[in-house]
Amino acid sequence: MLAAQRLVQATLQHPLYPLDYSFPSIDEGWIVVNFKNKPKVMKSTEMVAVDCEMVLCEDGTEAVVKVCVVDHNLEVKLDKLVKPDKEIADYRTEITGVSSQDLEAVTCSLADIQKYMKKLLSSGIILVGHSLHNDLRVLKLDHVRVIDTSYIFQSLDGSIHKRPSLNSLCQAVLHHEVREKGAPHNCLDDAKAAMDLVLAKIKHGVDKEFPIALVQEHVPESELAKLLLHKIPNTVNIETLHKILPGNFKIELKPSRKGQGANYSAFAIFRSPPEADGAYENVQGSQLKDTYGHPQKLVTFRLSTGLSVNLFVRKMVTEEPNDQTPSKRALQINEAVDVSKKAKMDPKIEEDASAGFGKGDTDAHSKEIEALNQQLKQSEMVIESLRKQLTQKDFEISMLHKMISSKKKKKQTV
Protein backbone atom coordinates (compact mmCIF):
# COMPACT_ATOMS: atom_id res chain seq x y z
CA MET A 1 0.00 0.00 0.00
CA LEU A 2 2.16 2.84 -1.34
CA ALA A 3 -0.52 5.31 -0.20
CA ALA A 4 0.39 4.67 3.45
CA GLN A 5 4.03 5.51 2.76
CA ARG A 6 2.98 8.70 1.02
CA LEU A 7 0.96 9.72 4.07
CA VAL A 8 4.08 9.11 6.18
CA GLN A 9 5.95 11.45 3.88
CA ALA A 10 3.13 13.99 4.09
CA THR A 11 3.44 13.96 7.87
CA LEU A 12 7.24 14.24 7.82
CA GLN A 13 7.18 17.16 5.41
CA HIS A 14 4.42 19.10 7.15
CA PRO A 15 5.73 22.50 8.32
CA LEU A 16 4.71 21.82 11.93
CA TYR A 17 6.55 18.48 12.10
CA PRO A 18 9.96 19.93 13.12
CA LEU A 19 8.30 21.79 15.98
CA ASP A 20 6.08 18.97 17.24
CA TYR A 21 8.38 15.99 16.79
CA SER A 22 11.70 17.36 18.06
CA PHE A 23 12.07 14.96 20.97
CA PRO A 24 14.85 14.89 23.60
CA SER A 25 15.62 11.30 22.52
CA ILE A 26 19.09 11.37 24.06
CA ASP A 27 17.58 11.83 27.53
CA GLU A 28 17.50 8.93 29.93
CA GLY A 29 14.51 6.66 29.58
CA TRP A 30 13.85 7.39 25.90
CA ILE A 31 13.61 4.62 23.31
CA VAL A 32 14.57 5.27 19.68
CA VAL A 33 13.31 2.89 16.99
CA ASN A 34 16.28 2.87 14.62
CA PHE A 35 16.00 1.80 10.97
CA LYS A 36 19.56 2.61 9.91
CA ASN A 37 20.80 0.23 7.22
CA LYS A 38 17.38 -1.47 7.03
CA PRO A 39 15.97 -0.40 3.63
CA LYS A 40 13.53 -3.34 3.45
CA VAL A 41 12.01 -2.42 6.79
CA MET A 42 11.42 1.14 5.55
CA LYS A 43 9.19 -0.21 2.78
CA SER A 44 6.67 -1.79 5.15
CA THR A 45 3.08 -0.58 4.71
CA GLU A 46 1.63 -2.28 7.79
CA MET A 47 -0.05 0.17 10.17
CA VAL A 48 -1.13 0.31 13.81
CA ALA A 49 -2.82 3.21 15.63
CA VAL A 50 -2.07 4.29 19.20
CA ASP A 51 -3.67 6.59 21.74
CA CYS A 52 -2.79 7.31 25.37
CA GLU A 53 -4.39 8.83 28.45
CA MET A 54 -2.18 11.02 30.63
CA VAL A 55 -2.27 12.24 34.23
CA LEU A 56 -0.56 15.24 35.78
CA CYS A 57 2.26 14.44 38.21
CA GLU A 58 3.27 16.45 41.27
CA ASP A 59 6.48 17.61 39.60
CA GLY A 60 4.45 19.26 36.81
CA THR A 61 5.19 16.59 34.18
CA GLU A 62 2.75 14.15 32.62
CA ALA A 63 2.69 10.38 32.80
CA VAL A 64 0.86 7.80 30.73
CA VAL A 65 -1.78 5.74 32.57
CA LYS A 66 -3.43 3.93 29.68
CA VAL A 67 -2.25 2.83 26.22
CA CYS A 68 -4.32 1.31 23.42
CA VAL A 69 -3.08 0.00 20.06
CA VAL A 70 -5.19 -1.33 17.17
CA ASP A 71 -4.20 -2.69 13.75
CA HIS A 72 -5.64 -1.72 10.36
CA ASN A 73 -8.52 -4.18 10.91
CA LEU A 74 -9.31 -2.35 14.19
CA GLU A 75 -8.37 -5.46 16.15
CA VAL A 76 -6.96 -4.65 19.58
CA LYS A 77 -3.22 -5.30 19.89
CA LEU A 78 -2.76 -3.60 23.26
CA ASP A 79 -5.13 -2.25 25.92
CA LYS A 80 -3.22 -1.64 29.14
CA LEU A 81 -3.35 0.49 32.27
CA VAL A 82 0.09 1.77 33.27
CA LYS A 83 1.41 2.58 36.75
CA PRO A 84 3.38 5.87 36.75
CA ASP A 85 6.63 5.95 38.73
CA LYS A 86 5.83 9.42 40.09
CA GLU A 87 3.30 10.80 42.54
CA ILE A 88 0.10 11.84 40.73
CA ALA A 89 -1.34 15.30 41.39
CA ASP A 90 -4.41 15.07 39.10
CA TYR A 91 -5.90 11.93 37.57
CA ARG A 92 -8.14 14.09 35.27
CA THR A 93 -10.76 11.38 35.73
CA GLU A 94 -13.49 13.43 34.04
CA ILE A 95 -11.33 13.36 30.89
CA THR A 96 -9.24 10.19 31.13
CA GLY A 97 -11.86 8.00 32.76
CA VAL A 98 -9.07 6.66 35.04
CA SER A 99 -9.18 6.95 38.85
CA SER A 100 -6.75 6.12 41.64
CA GLN A 101 -8.71 2.93 42.35
CA ASP A 102 -8.17 1.75 38.78
CA LEU A 103 -4.39 1.79 39.29
CA GLU A 104 -4.20 0.13 42.70
CA ALA A 105 -3.52 -3.39 41.39
CA VAL A 106 -1.68 -2.34 38.20
CA THR A 107 1.91 -3.56 37.84
CA CYS A 108 2.56 -2.64 34.19
CA SER A 109 5.21 0.09 33.90
CA LEU A 110 6.24 2.53 31.19
CA ALA A 111 9.33 0.38 30.56
CA ASP A 112 7.05 -2.60 29.87
CA ILE A 113 5.07 -0.60 27.31
CA GLN A 114 8.26 0.72 25.69
CA LYS A 115 9.61 -2.81 25.35
CA TYR A 116 6.40 -3.96 23.65
CA MET A 117 6.23 -0.92 21.34
CA LYS A 118 9.87 -1.18 20.28
CA LYS A 119 9.45 -4.85 19.38
CA LEU A 120 6.23 -4.07 17.49
CA LEU A 121 7.62 -1.10 15.55
CA SER A 122 11.10 -2.44 14.78
CA SER A 123 9.71 -4.35 11.81
CA GLY A 124 8.96 -1.00 10.15
CA ILE A 125 5.28 -0.73 11.10
CA ILE A 126 3.78 2.72 10.52
CA LEU A 127 2.39 4.31 13.69
CA VAL A 128 -0.89 6.24 13.30
CA GLY A 129 -2.38 8.75 15.73
CA HIS A 130 -4.04 12.12 16.17
CA SER A 131 -1.55 14.76 17.36
CA LEU A 132 0.65 11.72 17.79
CA HIS A 133 3.60 13.70 19.13
CA ASN A 134 1.77 14.08 22.46
CA ASP A 135 1.47 10.31 22.81
CA LEU A 136 5.08 9.68 21.76
CA ARG A 137 6.28 12.26 24.26
CA VAL A 138 4.68 10.55 27.27
CA LEU A 139 5.71 7.13 25.95
CA LYS A 140 9.27 8.50 25.59
CA LEU A 141 9.36 6.86 22.18
CA ASP A 142 11.02 8.28 19.05
CA HIS A 143 9.62 6.63 15.92
CA VAL A 144 9.95 8.24 12.50
CA ARG A 145 7.41 6.21 10.48
CA VAL A 146 4.29 8.07 11.60
CA ILE A 147 1.01 9.34 10.14
CA ASP A 148 -0.52 12.23 12.07
CA THR A 149 -4.22 12.66 11.30
CA SER A 150 -4.11 16.27 12.51
CA TYR A 151 -1.76 16.95 9.55
CA ILE A 152 -3.18 14.98 6.60
CA PHE A 153 -6.60 16.64 6.47
CA GLN A 154 -7.16 20.29 5.80
CA SER A 155 -9.98 22.77 6.26
CA LEU A 156 -11.56 24.61 3.33
CA ASP A 157 -9.60 27.82 3.92
CA GLY A 158 -6.38 25.99 3.05
CA SER A 159 -4.56 26.84 6.30
CA ILE A 160 -1.86 24.40 7.37
CA HIS A 161 -1.75 25.73 10.93
CA LYS A 162 -5.15 24.67 12.22
CA ARG A 163 -5.26 21.52 14.29
CA PRO A 164 -8.71 19.98 13.96
CA SER A 165 -9.88 17.93 16.92
CA LEU A 166 -10.29 14.20 16.44
CA ASN A 167 -14.01 14.51 17.10
CA SER A 168 -14.55 17.24 14.50
CA LEU A 169 -12.57 15.28 11.90
CA CYS A 170 -14.68 12.18 12.54
CA GLN A 171 -17.84 14.24 12.11
CA ALA A 172 -16.59 15.75 8.87
CA VAL A 173 -14.95 12.67 7.31
CA LEU A 174 -16.66 9.65 8.88
CA HIS A 175 -19.98 11.36 9.65
CA HIS A 176 -20.09 10.27 13.28
CA GLU A 177 -18.73 11.48 16.62
CA VAL A 178 -16.06 9.68 18.62
CA ARG A 179 -17.94 10.49 21.82
CA GLU A 180 -20.78 12.60 23.12
CA LYS A 181 -19.91 16.07 24.34
CA GLY A 182 -18.64 15.97 27.93
CA ALA A 183 -18.09 12.20 27.97
CA PRO A 184 -14.68 10.90 29.20
CA HIS A 185 -12.07 9.97 26.61
CA ASN A 186 -11.69 6.35 25.64
CA CYS A 187 -8.26 5.84 24.12
CA LEU A 188 -9.36 2.60 22.44
CA ASP A 189 -12.10 4.51 20.59
CA ASP A 190 -9.63 7.28 19.74
CA ALA A 191 -7.07 4.84 18.32
CA LYS A 192 -9.76 3.19 16.18
CA ALA A 193 -10.99 6.60 15.00
CA ALA A 194 -7.48 7.65 13.93
CA MET A 195 -7.07 4.42 11.95
CA ASP A 196 -10.51 4.88 10.34
CA LEU A 197 -9.51 8.39 9.24
CA VAL A 198 -6.31 7.15 7.60
CA LEU A 199 -8.15 4.33 5.83
CA ALA A 200 -10.77 6.82 4.60
CA LYS A 201 -8.02 9.08 3.25
CA ILE A 202 -6.36 6.16 1.44
CA LYS A 203 -9.67 4.95 0.02
CA HIS A 204 -10.48 8.45 -1.24
CA GLY A 205 -7.02 8.81 -2.79
CA VAL A 206 -3.97 10.44 -1.22
CA ASP A 207 -3.54 12.87 -4.12
CA LYS A 208 -7.22 13.66 -4.60
CA GLU A 209 -8.74 16.83 -3.23
CA PHE A 210 -10.28 16.11 0.15
CA PRO A 211 -11.33 19.51 1.58
CA ILE A 212 -12.83 19.27 5.03
CA ALA A 213 -15.52 21.65 6.23
CA LEU A 214 -14.85 21.30 9.94
CA VAL A 215 -17.84 21.62 12.23
CA GLN A 216 -17.92 25.06 13.82
CA GLU A 217 -19.55 25.24 17.22
CA HIS A 218 -21.71 28.28 17.85
CA VAL A 219 -20.12 30.58 20.41
CA PRO A 220 -22.86 31.95 22.72
CA GLU A 221 -22.76 35.52 23.98
CA SER A 222 -21.74 34.29 27.44
CA GLU A 223 -18.55 32.85 25.91
CA LEU A 224 -17.76 36.14 24.19
CA ALA A 225 -17.69 37.73 27.65
CA LYS A 226 -14.49 35.78 28.35
CA LEU A 227 -10.82 36.30 27.62
CA LEU A 228 -8.50 33.30 27.38
CA LEU A 229 -5.26 33.61 29.35
CA HIS A 230 -2.77 30.94 28.36
CA LYS A 231 0.88 29.97 28.80
CA ILE A 232 0.58 31.34 32.37
CA PRO A 233 3.65 30.34 34.43
CA ASN A 234 2.77 28.33 37.54
CA THR A 235 4.56 31.03 39.57
CA VAL A 236 1.75 33.47 38.68
CA ASN A 237 -1.26 33.21 41.01
CA ILE A 238 -4.84 34.37 40.47
CA GLU A 239 -4.31 37.52 42.54
CA THR A 240 -1.53 38.56 40.17
CA LEU A 241 -3.78 38.00 37.14
CA HIS A 242 -6.25 40.53 38.59
CA LYS A 243 -3.43 43.08 38.79
CA ILE A 244 -2.34 42.51 35.20
CA LEU A 245 -5.72 42.55 33.47
CA PRO A 246 -7.95 45.65 33.87
CA GLY A 247 -11.66 45.43 34.70
CA ASN A 248 -13.95 43.48 36.98
CA PHE A 249 -13.84 39.73 36.31
CA LYS A 250 -13.53 36.34 37.93
CA ILE A 251 -11.00 33.66 37.05
CA GLU A 252 -11.94 30.14 35.99
CA LEU A 253 -9.10 27.64 35.50
CA LYS A 254 -9.19 25.84 32.14
CA PRO A 255 -8.89 22.03 32.34
CA SER A 256 -6.56 20.37 29.85
CA ARG A 257 -6.29 16.77 28.74
CA LYS A 258 -2.63 17.11 27.83
CA GLY A 259 -1.64 19.44 30.63
CA GLN A 260 0.61 22.49 30.48
CA GLY A 261 3.67 21.31 32.40
CA ALA A 262 5.14 24.48 33.94
CA ASN A 263 2.21 26.58 32.64
CA TYR A 264 -1.57 26.67 32.90
CA SER A 265 -4.54 28.36 31.21
CA ALA A 266 -7.55 30.23 32.59
CA PHE A 267 -10.60 32.23 31.53
CA ALA A 268 -11.20 35.80 32.69
CA ILE A 269 -15.01 36.02 32.86
CA PHE A 270 -16.59 39.48 32.56
CA ARG A 271 -20.23 40.55 32.91
CA SER A 272 -20.61 41.31 29.19
CA PRO A 273 -18.74 41.05 25.84
CA PRO A 274 -18.11 44.84 25.70
CA GLU A 275 -16.36 44.66 29.09
CA ALA A 276 -14.19 41.78 27.86
CA ASP A 277 -13.36 43.71 24.67
CA GLY A 278 -12.48 46.80 26.70
CA ALA A 279 -10.17 44.84 28.97
CA TYR A 280 -8.44 43.29 25.95
CA GLU A 281 -7.92 46.68 24.33
CA ASN A 282 -6.56 48.23 27.53
CA VAL A 283 -4.20 45.47 28.61
CA GLN A 284 -0.60 46.39 27.85
CA GLY A 285 1.11 43.95 25.50
CA SER A 286 2.46 43.20 22.03
CA GLN A 287 -0.29 42.55 19.46
CA LEU A 288 0.21 39.14 17.81
CA LYS A 289 -1.81 36.32 16.27
CA ASP A 290 -2.13 32.72 17.37
CA THR A 291 -1.78 29.75 14.98
CA TYR A 292 -5.46 30.13 14.02
CA GLY A 293 -4.97 33.77 13.05
CA HIS A 294 -6.92 35.05 16.08
CA PRO A 295 -5.66 38.27 17.71
CA GLN A 296 -3.85 37.88 21.00
CA LYS A 297 -1.44 39.90 23.10
CA LEU A 298 1.88 38.87 24.60
CA VAL A 299 1.92 40.46 28.06
CA THR A 300 5.21 40.83 29.93
CA PHE A 301 5.25 41.86 33.58
CA ARG A 302 7.46 41.74 36.67
CA LEU A 303 6.63 39.70 39.78
CA SER A 304 7.24 40.93 43.31
CA THR A 305 10.41 38.81 43.28
CA GLY A 306 11.72 40.97 40.44
CA LEU A 307 11.45 38.16 37.88
CA SER A 308 9.90 39.04 34.49
CA VAL A 309 7.36 36.57 33.08
CA ASN A 310 5.04 36.32 30.06
CA LEU A 311 1.52 35.18 29.29
CA PHE A 312 -0.88 35.47 26.36
CA VAL A 313 -4.35 37.08 26.36
CA ARG A 314 -6.78 36.13 23.58
CA LYS A 315 -10.36 36.99 22.70
CA MET A 316 -12.98 34.26 22.50
CA VAL A 317 -13.97 34.70 18.86
CA THR A 318 -15.48 32.51 16.20
CA GLU A 319 -13.67 31.71 12.96
CA GLU A 320 -13.61 34.66 10.58
CA PRO A 321 -14.93 34.01 7.05
CA ASN A 322 -12.31 33.46 4.40
CA ASP A 323 -13.04 34.63 0.85
CA GLN A 324 -10.03 32.94 -0.68
CA THR A 325 -10.55 30.07 -3.09
CA PRO A 326 -9.33 26.78 -1.59
CA SER A 327 -6.20 25.35 -3.15
CA LYS A 328 -6.48 22.24 -5.31
CA ARG A 329 -4.22 20.21 -3.04
CA ALA A 330 -5.17 19.47 0.57
CA LEU A 331 -1.49 19.68 1.52
CA GLN A 332 1.14 21.59 -0.47
CA ILE A 333 3.83 19.14 0.49
CA ASN A 334 6.66 19.98 -1.89
CA GLU A 335 6.14 23.66 -1.19
CA ALA A 336 6.68 23.07 2.53
CA VAL A 337 10.02 21.26 2.26
CA ASP A 338 12.18 24.32 2.95
CA VAL A 339 10.51 24.96 6.32
CA SER A 340 10.67 21.27 7.20
CA LYS A 341 14.41 20.63 6.84
CA LYS A 342 14.43 18.20 9.69
CA ALA A 343 12.12 15.86 7.80
CA LYS A 344 14.28 16.11 4.70
CA MET A 345 17.74 15.95 6.26
CA ASP A 346 17.25 13.63 9.24
CA PRO A 347 19.26 10.46 8.39
CA LYS A 348 16.60 8.35 10.12
CA ILE A 349 14.05 9.16 7.40
CA GLU A 350 16.11 9.73 4.29
CA GLU A 351 15.26 6.26 2.97
CA ASP A 352 11.51 6.89 3.18
CA ALA A 353 11.30 9.39 0.33
CA SER A 354 8.45 8.91 -2.09
CA ALA A 355 7.21 10.32 -5.39
CA GLY A 356 6.45 14.05 -5.75
CA PHE A 357 3.03 15.45 -4.97
CA GLY A 358 2.76 18.26 -7.51
CA LYS A 359 3.63 21.94 -7.58
CA GLY A 360 0.56 23.53 -6.08
CA ASP A 361 -0.45 27.14 -6.31
CA THR A 362 2.24 29.83 -6.03
CA ASP A 363 -0.06 32.36 -4.36
CA ALA A 364 -1.13 29.83 -1.75
CA HIS A 365 2.53 29.01 -1.15
CA SER A 366 3.37 32.69 -0.67
CA LYS A 367 0.58 33.06 1.86
CA GLU A 368 1.78 30.01 3.78
CA ILE A 369 5.35 31.39 3.85
CA GLU A 370 4.02 34.73 5.08
CA ALA A 371 2.11 32.95 7.85
CA LEU A 372 5.21 30.96 8.82
CA ASN A 373 7.28 34.14 8.90
CA GLN A 374 4.69 35.70 11.19
CA GLN A 375 4.94 32.69 13.50
CA LEU A 376 8.74 32.95 13.42
CA LYS A 377 8.58 36.62 14.45
CA GLN A 378 6.26 35.75 17.33
CA SER A 379 8.62 32.99 18.43
CA GLU A 380 11.58 35.36 18.27
CA MET A 381 9.74 37.85 20.49
CA VAL A 382 8.98 35.14 23.02
CA ILE A 383 12.60 33.90 22.92
CA GLU A 384 13.89 37.44 23.43
CA SER A 385 11.59 37.87 26.41
CA LEU A 386 12.77 34.55 27.87
CA ARG A 387 16.35 35.63 27.30
CA LYS A 388 15.70 38.76 29.35
CA GLN A 389 14.15 36.64 32.09
CA LEU A 390 17.24 34.42 32.19
CA THR A 391 19.50 37.48 32.38
CA GLN A 392 17.43 38.80 35.30
CA LYS A 393 17.57 35.42 37.02
CA ASP A 394 21.36 35.23 36.55
CA PHE A 395 21.62 38.67 38.12
CA GLU A 396 19.48 37.59 41.10
CA ILE A 397 21.56 34.43 41.60
CA SER A 398 24.77 36.46 41.41
CA MET A 399 23.45 38.88 44.05
CA LEU A 400 22.47 35.97 46.32
CA HIS A 401 25.94 34.47 45.99
CA LYS A 402 27.47 37.82 46.96
CA MET A 403 25.18 38.11 49.98
CA ILE A 404 26.02 34.57 51.12
CA SER A 405 29.73 35.20 50.61
CA SER A 406 29.50 38.45 52.58
CA LYS A 407 27.70 36.74 55.48
CA LYS A 408 30.33 33.97 55.57
CA LYS A 409 33.12 36.55 55.76
CA LYS A 410 31.37 38.34 58.63
CA LYS A 411 31.01 35.06 60.54
CA GLN A 412 34.67 34.28 59.99
CA THR A 413 35.61 37.75 61.27
CA VAL A 414 33.52 37.28 64.40
Written description of the protein model:
This protein is of the alpha/beta class and 414 residues long. It has twelve helices and 16 strands. Strands 2, 3, 4, 5, 6 and 8 form a six-stranded mixed β-sheet that branches. A six-stranded antiparallel β-sheet has the order 12-13-11-16-15-14, with helices on both faces. It has a two-stranded parallel sheet with strand order 1-7. Helix 6 (166-174) crosses helix 7 (187-204). Residues 319-362 have low confidence and may be disordered.
Layout of secondary structure:
Layout: H1 2-12, H2 17-20, E1 31-32, E2 47-57, E3 62-71, E4 76-81, E5 88-90, H3 93-96, H4 110-121, E6 126-129, H5 132-139, E7 141-142, E8 146-148, E9 154-155, H6 166-174, H7 187-204, E10 211-212, H8 221-224, E11 226-233, H9 238-244, E12 250-253, E13 263-269, H10 273-282, E14 286-289, E15 295-302, E16 308-315, H11 341-345, H12 362-413
Parallel strand pairs: 1-7, 2-6, 6-8, 9-10
Antiparallel strand pairs: 2-3, 2-5, 3-4, 11-13, 11-16, 12-13, 14-15, 15-16
Helix pairs in contact: 6-7
